[in-house]
Design goal:
single chain; mainly beta
Length: 1212
């Protein structure tokens, strides 16, 4: 009997368009189907308790607030509500089934004694069809769609024995937000789906690059020793966090075909979000679905597709790159077990820029004459230093592979288990070759890492939801020098064709920054328990996080030593001015632990949403270096203690929606305030582990003058143990040997944190434009910085020609012929070198205002424009990695241990950002990203140490041409000021006759423009699944060369770093206590600052093939029915513009017709509306005009009941 009833029910459900029920619900389904399976499919009464919003949220501005209640997981939806009968009494035992329109996966639940049900849907997509069955009642079908970014979809359904009136379904689909990581009321950021990324000219592999598509995010260019990064709210890059599926991701690289959505958060007040005080990039990955689907992408960049005279040299040839990626997933067991895998490989080849391959034009940009370069090459070859490396190609090759595999298992209706594996391999050879050096000055770099993540989401006890996650990862990075010999640096002055004198440092021998090693192992565990009370207005949650990172790293510079020659003449005489070397015999390992507990709640009432809570974060380190009694006795510092610290961070955020009645647009007000803490960078722990001041740890050797060993490059190359370990014998009683360095923490050290506040308003104008205004403030506190406790407190003498600049070594210790000095004489206790103390007493202050405008059309066009004004000040902008670099980073004009406020390195006063997608024809679309950013601040510097503190951190004195005691310096300054760009000239003239202030100069404005032209041909019956794209690389660079010529490039289109060195030391006069300087005639030149490398205008080609459901076709069919697609179709969960000439689907007029019962439409009204809907589909006319005609058919009362989102279908 039972099988027969079940078969009858399945047949009836198929006839009525309802979903098959899982076996777990067969008992209820068996009885509930008696006599009620067929017919037109009856609907129940649904009341969705979230306040309706206009469709203006569909294409939200770049700074649109992320609306959310507190959440369990990164994309976990909670469908909850009450089922009642015709008498409004709750129905116990009703079966509620939910089918995700994105994944076609179904889940079900049974109502309790109060008629309540809860269905937890991890990665469901935010759009669902619900089917409700109860004994003796007509089955009810309702559709729910996430409104904004809330995770709770509250739907109360009233059932009946016959058709009942349907109240207005007050939900709206915010396009793009369904895939978003939700971060709470008051949040500011931007959500970017994988489909949106595919339509824009952006590297989708790098999440840090994607982050720069959000307003207020500052892109930081890569250097020879650091990767490209970003900054938010003036905070250092180490204050950012990148997460994947809710847990930390260190590398920031994921196959582009594995990414589901990326949320860039610049402000968030959800206490569940932690481990950052800057920005958060939260990405989610794709999972398998009931329908197999995937995508494959091939991208080509070729040097033969580069244009311009700049391509004639390796300094401007561009690169050739092949990139192939693909991802595919589907069911292993339908509706139960799923898999998705992705793999991406990138192979890049680029001509190697070095002094050997530099042509005369490039040399002029670098400030070196061809004669000087030729003489240097000859002398370097004669010195015995390696001039070439066997097997080294004249091309830099970079290889990158990223793999991803994910399994999802629906253990039961209440539990879901996810397992994710990821791996990455990266290499570059040669790397870090100086454009002003020989090829052997480079090295090789290899990186490999991976991890495994598991998460379990559970729903139990009717109203409790629990999620536990864990991620174990390993990351190893190695960089080694091509030749294990010291680095050689030569200062060369050249007369340039424009009449100025250039001063440059040419390199040969080895690389002072290598070797380096990082070998970290990390474990992160997260647990969150949330409670869903009966009313649904509140949702408290309690969570915990534990993260541990095992360290084994060595990033100490200058391990092989450096010889410095003051001139080519000194190189010819084999007479270096100085030699320095850092020894790191032993590197000790340790583990950095961070933990957090948080308690939060979200509350919704009417148009107001609040999130509030507190987060308790703590940190500790196990494996501190050994105790050093001498350091404790002399400096009162404990090397064996790394402080523990804890901090309570309160937060509150709000989002209020008001107005919007009678078809008007609501006003959205958002904001919040809170405290945010980021972990201590592991590099700081590594520095303390490596330098406890012991003889078997980090020590430093500095030799100047007659104590400099005579280099024997051939011996060093054959046996690296021959590299000097002490200075030359000068006949003194004491031989100068290495002295131990110390790096340790202050007793009150605390992790960096920032107080953040924001307030914003957003409104829709003219049914087309969305305008927003957001203001934010960030006060960074406990920022880390360095002091040298072994620096003498009183200067030995001052420099009268430089406004009394203090010098901490005696005048007689400075070599008169070269101006070289050692810092031993500046030591309070000469038996030690630098004693660097890491403190947390620095601060930063950032104020930002962003104005945004967005617009969209029914043809699929979308435009987002934003302008951000930033004022950022701090006491140091140092981010990573060596402690000695951190001490030098703030620069100094007097006492290097003093704290000074100045413009931050991370300020770009003005920034404009535009992203555009514009359909041109049915199968043709244009995507563009345009930026215009004001120049980067920089500081006029001296090229070497002049105050004797042992660091290259001395700001330059700006000599006035008329009063300089050295007439050669005065003449050179006059020439420099006369020919410098306007901003550089103003910087120098405003500071004549005084030491320059930190970041007192500003580089040139930086425009950039990248385009992508995409064509979707109707070939091979693929239904436009294949997209062929043409991309531009550095289009502005091509315009720069076309307008200004190769010799006068302005640096458009790529990040430029102005040359900050104003003065080079040429000697010292002890009688007058005056350094002799040479003026760098190329000071402030952006081309020199970038190593002379130019990025040419280049064309790229791309092909992308998607497999699986054709969303455009399915939406057309759904539109024709005026309803949601059936269970075997793949209805699109968000807007797709693969056929941009057609209006967005589903048809809004057809959707109005689906509410015929609720609106009380007559037969005549239905016929009139159907004619309007058909004309909208066939003629592709304006949806707004069609709605105006539909409004004329309805009565005012009927129009009032139409859901607000359907009244504004063209909302951006």
């Amino acid at each position: 009997m039972a099988p027969a009833l079940w078969s009858a029910l399945r047949r009836g459900a198929r006839r009525s368009g309802e979903r098959d029920l899982p076996a777990a619900g067969s008992a209820l389904a068996r009885e509930g189907g008696r006599g009620r399976g067929g017919g037109a499919g009856l609907y129940g009464v649904i009341r969705v308790h979230a306040r309706p919003l206009q469709l203006l949220l569909a294409l939200a501005l770049p700074l649109a607030a992320s609306r959310a209640a507190a959440q369990v997981g990164t994309t976990t939806d909670i469908i909850t509500g009450t089922v009642s009968g015709p008498d409004s009494l709750p129905l116990a035992g009703a079966l509620v089934q939910a089918v995700s329109l994105e994944t076609q996966i179904s889940r079900h639940a049974t109502t309790d004694a109060r008629g309540r049900f809860t269905i937890v849907f991890p990665d469901g997509g935010g759009q669902y069809d619900l089917t409700i069955r109860f004994i003796g009642m007509a089955p009810a079908n309702v559709s729910v769609t996430r409104e904004g970014d809330e995770d709770r979809l509250v739907a109360n359904v009233q059932m009946g024995a016959s058709a009942v009136a349907l109240e207005a379904v007050t939900v709206s689909a915010r396009r793009g937000s369904r895939l978003a990581e939700r971060v709470g009321p008051g949040a500011v950021g931007r959500t970017i789906s994988a489909d949106q990324l595919a339509r824009l000219p952006v590297d989708a592999l790098d999440l840090k690059t994607i982050a720069t598509l959000a307003p207020g995010v500052l892109a930081l260019a890569a250097t020879d020793s650091t990767e490209a990064d970003f900054s938010v709210a003036g905070q250092r890059p180490t204050a950012n966090a990148i997460t994947l599926d809710g847990l930390s991701l260190g590398s920031g690289s994921v196959p582009q075909d594995a990414i589901r959505s990326t949320r860039v958060v610049t402000s968030s007040y959800d206490a569940a979000r932690g481990q950052f005080s800057g920005g958060l990039v939260a990405s989610t990955t794709r999972s398998g679905k009931n329908i197999p689907q995937g995508s494959f992408t091939y991208t080509l960049r070729d040097r033969s597709l580069a244009w311009g005279q700049a391509t004639a040299s390796p300094f401007g040839q561009g690169y050739t790159q092949n990139q192939l990626s693909g991802g595919m997933g589907g069911p292993i067991v339908r509706n139960r077990l799923f898999v998705f895998g992705a793999l991406q490989g990138r192979w890049r080849g680029q001509a190697l820029p070095s002094l050997v391959s530099a042509d005369p034009l490039t040399l002029a940009r670098l400030g070196v004459s061809p004669d000087s370069a030729s003489r240097f090459l000859a002398l370097a070859a004669a010195s015995g230093a390696p001039a070439q490396v066997h097997g080294l190609a004249d091309e830099r090759t970079t290889e990158n592979t990223v793999a991803f595999l994910r399994f999802d298992w629906k253990v039961s209706e209440a539990q879901t288990l996810t397992l994710r594996l990821d791996g990455r391999w990266d290499s570059q050879q040669p790397t870090r070759v100086s454009p002003l050096g020989l090829p052997p000055t480079g090295g090789t770099r290899t990186e490999r890492g991976g991890g495994v993540m598991a998460s379990l989401t559970s729903h139990f006890a009717g109203s409790l939801i629990n999620e536990v996650r864990g991620y174990f990862s390993a990351d190893r990075r190695d960089a080694t020098a091509l030749v294990a010999v010291p680095a050689g640096r030569v200062q060369v002055a050249s007369d340039l064709p424009d009449g100025r004198q250039g001063v440059a440092t040419l390199a040969f021998g080895g690389n002072a920054g290598l070797p380096q090693r990082v070998n970290n192992v990390s474990l992160e565990l997260g647990e969150e328990l949330s409670w869903l009370p009966g009313g649904g207005a509140h949702r408290p949650k309690l969570g915990a996080l534990l993260s541990g990172t095992g360290l084994d790293q060595n990033q100490t510079p200058n391990q092989l030593g450096t010889f410095v020659f003051p001139s080519l003449t000194a190189l010819a005489a084999d007479s270096p001015a100085s030699f320095s070397r850092v020894f790191v015999p032993v590197v000790q390992g340790g583990t950095a632990w961070t933990g957090a507990l948080y308690l939060a709640d979200s509350w919704r009432t009417g148009g107001l949403q609040l999130t509030y809570g507190a987060r308790l974060e703590s940190a500790r380190f196990s494996g501190a270096p050994p105790y050093n009694r001498a350091v404790d006795s002399l400096f009162a510092l404990r090397t064996d203690r790394i402080p523990r610290h804890s901090r309570l961070s309160p937060r509150i955020g709000f989002l209020w929606t008001g107005g919007g009645g009678e078809g008007g647009s609501p006003t959205i007000l958002r904001g919040g305030v809170g405290d945010f803490q980021s972990p201590t960078p592991t590099a700081l722990y590594g520095a303390a582990l490596g330098a406890p001041g012991l003889a078997n740890a980090e020590t430093e050797l500095v030799c100047v003058g007659s104590a400099v060993p005579t280099p024997d490059w051939a011996d060093y190359a054959s046996d690296p143990s021959m590299i000097p370990r002490q200075c030359a014998d000068t006949g003194s009683a004491v031989t100068i040997g290495p002295r131990p360095n110390v790096t340790t923490f202050t007793r009150d050290y605390a992790a960096p944190h920032a107080w953040r506040a924001s307030l914003g308003v957003q409104r829709r104008l003219l049914h087309v434009f969305t305008v927003s205004l957001d203001a934010s403030y960030a006060r960074g506190t406990s920022q880390y910085g360095f002091r040298d406790r072994n620096l003498v407190g009183t200067p030995r003498f001052t420099l009268p020609d430089e406004a009394g600049r203090p010098v901490y070594v005696p005048a007689d210790s400075i070599v008169p012929a070269t101006g070289a000095l050692g810092f031993t004489a500046s030591r309070l206790h000469p038996e030690f070198g630098q004693v660097l103390v890491i403190g947390s007493d620095l601060q930063s202050d950032t104020r930002q205002v962003t104005v945004g405008v967005g617009a969209g059309t029914t043809r699929g066009a979308a435009v987002r424009l934003s302008y951000t004004f930033t004022r950022a000040r701090d006491q140091s902008s140092f981010s990573c990695c060596a402690a000695s670099h951190g001490f030098a980073a703030p620069t100094t004009a007097a006492n290097p241990n003093a704290r000074e406020w100045a413009t931050s390195d991370l300020e770009r006063r003005h920034a404009l950002l535009a992203t555009v997608t514009l359909p041109i024809a049915t199968a043709l679309e244009l995507g563009a990203i345009a930026r215009l950013t004001s120049g980067a601040p920089f500081t006029p510097m001296v090229g070497s140490d002049v105050n004797g503190d042992g660091a290259r951190n001395d700001r330059a004195y700006i000599f006035a041409p008329a009063t300089a005691s050295d007439t050669a310096v005065g003449s050179a300054m006059r020439t420099l000021i006369a020919g410098a760009p306007g901003a550089v000239r103003r910087c120098l003239e405003s500071q004549l006759a005084r030491v320059a202030a930190r970041n007192s100069c500003t580089g040139p404005w930086q425009p950039s423009l990248d385009l992508q032209l995409s064509w979707r041909p109707a070939w091979f019956g693929l239904e436009r699944r294949l997209t062929l794209s043409l991309l531009t690389v550095n289009l502005m660079g091509g315009l720069d060369e076309w307008l200004h010529g190769t010799a006068k490039l302005h640096g458009w289109g790529y990040a430029t770093a102005p040359d900050p060195v104003l003065l080079y030391v040429r000697g010292f006069d002890p009688a007058s206590a005056r350094f002799r300087y040479a003026v760098n005639g190329r000071f402030g030149a952006s081309s020199a600052g970038n190593g002379g490398v130019t990025v040419p205008f280049q064309i790229g080609l791309q092909a992308r093939l998607t497999l699986g459901p054709n969303r455009t076709r399915d939406r057309l069919r759904a539109s024709e029915r005026g309803a949601t697609a059936g269970p075997d179709s793949a209805a699109a969960p968000h807007l797709d513009t693969s056929t941009p000439a057609r209006p967005p689907l589903p048809n809004p007029v057809a959707r109005i017709m689906s509410f015929r019962d609720s609106l009380g439409l007559s037969v005549e009204q239905v016929a009139a509306l159907r004619a309007i809907a058909d004309s909208l589909d066939v003629l592709s006319q304006s949806a707004q005009r069609a709605l105006q005609r539909a409004r004329a058919v309805l009565t005012p009362e009927q129009w009032r009941k139409v859901p607000e989102p359907l009244k504004s279908p063209e909302a951006p």
